[in-house]
Input
Amino acid sequence: MNANEVIANRAAQLIGLELGSKKVHPNDHVNICQSSNDVIPTAIHISAFSELRDSLLPALANLRNTLLMRGSEFSIV
Output
């Protein structure tokens, strides 16, 4: 919650409000009333997708290409 309060205070400063003003509320405006139960599963899904796309799929494509190349080298037919 402390980070949300710092962000809310900085946002208030940037729009010309007094420091400590609750016009930018830490929970309502910064966190948008999301709990860690809302955020953590979403972050995990996004991270898993990103790793699959950026790491696993290229590695599998490389493995496939290597196996095809090596298979043709040792092919008897």
Notes: The first helix runs from residue 2 to 14.
